[in-house]
């Protein structure tokens, strides 16, 4: 199976620091690469991470604040310059189409025709992913400007049970036929169904939630995901500022993860107001309400998807 992992290209919020670049996250998924919120400097960060424009098949913008989109011009021009031939779908809030157009054509360059725009509108929208091995849903969030989160989900599959196959005399090509058709004739002439010889294998799921207050959309995106990549701009002492500016605290991110049954909580989008020696407070406050695995990320971290759920 191809790689499934997240590369953190930037983890700052509005103001980058010496240690943290503006946002940027590349999710690799079975030969596809979803680039979320390419902020300023994303092109260089990808080079530092050993990634290239050819790795990108989607650009997903949550909203048009600069720290989430000012890397779009560089990425589009790099896609053109490097001769990327496969389609690159671009999802963004339809209400910000004029900003997308400015970013898409920000300077003079030899253009490319591989960018396929997918404007997002309404409270919830399922995007056309073609033959990709996942679905992609955008959900409206609560921020001073229109913003969306994204949820990627692999369809559920099945795990075959060898002992049950053997007991019913199903072997060789009949196993594949059983998977494809749902039933075959067993060695004794009886009908064997897929349900008898398999158990459900939940598909893996990832949610990407940036600038937002707590709202129904956050919980819907996060519900049952294996990995939740979520902003935690403030610590709890500054919860008033978080609400005013339309952001989450680390404790709120932790509670979202706990309520949603998340397996791996990935905290990012940290305000520059907190010095490096206080960063542990983000993890501590999230861990106080969420007992699962927490990753407090740094730039160029690469985070593997958690192992599959068995059932």
From TrEMBL:
Name the family.
Belongs to the RNase Z family.
Q: Which CDD domains match?
A: RNaseZ_ZiPD-like_MBL-fold
- What chemistry does it catalyse, as a reaction equation? Endonucleolytic cleavage of RNA, removing extra 3' nucleotides from tRNA precursor, generating 3' termini of tRNAs. A 3'-hydroxy group is left at the tRNA terminus and a 5'-phosphoryl group is left at the trailer molecule
Q: Which residues form the Metallo-beta-lactamase domain?
A: 21-269
How would you summarize the oligomeric state and partners of this protein? Homodimer.
| Active site per UniProt | 67
Which residues are recorded as binding Zn(2+) 1? 63, 65, 143, 211
Q: How is the cofactor bound?
A: Binds 2 Zn(2+) ions.
Kindly list the GO molecular function terms attached to this UniProt entry: 3'-tRNA processing endoribonuclease activity
Please list the cofactors this protein needs: Zn(2+)
Enzyme Commission identifier(s): 3.1.26.11
What is the protein's name according to its record? Ribonuclease Z
Q: Which PANTHER family match?
A: ZINC PHOSPHODIESTERASE ELAC PROTEIN 1
The entry marks the following residues as binding Zn(2+) 2, namely 67-68, 211, 269
Enumerate the UniProt keywords alphabetically: Endonuclease, Hydrolase, Metal-binding, Nuclease, tRNA processing, Zinc
**Purpose:** Zinc phosphodiesterase, which displays some tRNA 3'-processing endonuclease activity. Probably involved in tRNA maturation, by removing a 3'-trailer from precursor tRNA.
Organism name: Actinomadura sediminis
């Amino acid at each position: 199976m191809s790689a499934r992992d997240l590369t953190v290209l930037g983890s700052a919020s509005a103001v980058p620091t010496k240690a943290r670049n503006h946002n940027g996250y590349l999710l690799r998924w079975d030969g596809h690469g979803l680039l979320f919120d390419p902020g300023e400097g994303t092109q260089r960060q990808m080079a530092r991470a050993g990634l290239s424009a050819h790795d990108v098949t989607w650009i997903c913008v949550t909203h048009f604040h600069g720290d989430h989109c000012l890397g779009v011009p560089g990425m589009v021009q790099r896609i053109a310059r490097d001769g990327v031939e496969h389609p690159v779908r671009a999802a963004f809030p339809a209400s910000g189409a004029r900003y997308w157009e400015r970013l898409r054509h920000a300077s003079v360059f030899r253009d490319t025709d591989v960018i396929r725009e997918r404007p997002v509108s309404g409270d919830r929208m399922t995007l056309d992913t073609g033959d990709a091995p996942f679905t992609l849903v955008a959900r409206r969030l609560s921020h001073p400007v229109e913003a969306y989160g994204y949820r990627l989900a692999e369809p559920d599959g099945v795990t075959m049970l060898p002992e049950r196959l053997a007991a019913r005399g199903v072997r060789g090509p009949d196993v594949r036929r059983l998977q494809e058709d749902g039933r075959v004739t067993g060695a004794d002439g009886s009908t064997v169904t897929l349900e008898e010889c398999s158990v459900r294998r939940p598909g893996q799921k990832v949610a990407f939630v940036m600038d937002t207050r707590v709202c129904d959309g956050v919980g819907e995106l996060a519900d049952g995901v294996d990995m939740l990549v979520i902003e935690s701009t403030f610590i709890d002492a500054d919860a008033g500022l978080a609400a005013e500016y339309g952001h989450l605290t680390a404790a709120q991110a932790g509670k979202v993860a706990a309520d949603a049954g998340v397996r791996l909580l990935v905290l990012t989008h940290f305000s520059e107001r907190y010095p490096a020696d206080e960063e542990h407070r983000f993890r501590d406050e999230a861990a106080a309400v969420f007992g699962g695995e927490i990753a407090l990320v740094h730039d160029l971290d690469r985070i593997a998807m958690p192992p599959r759920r068995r059932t």
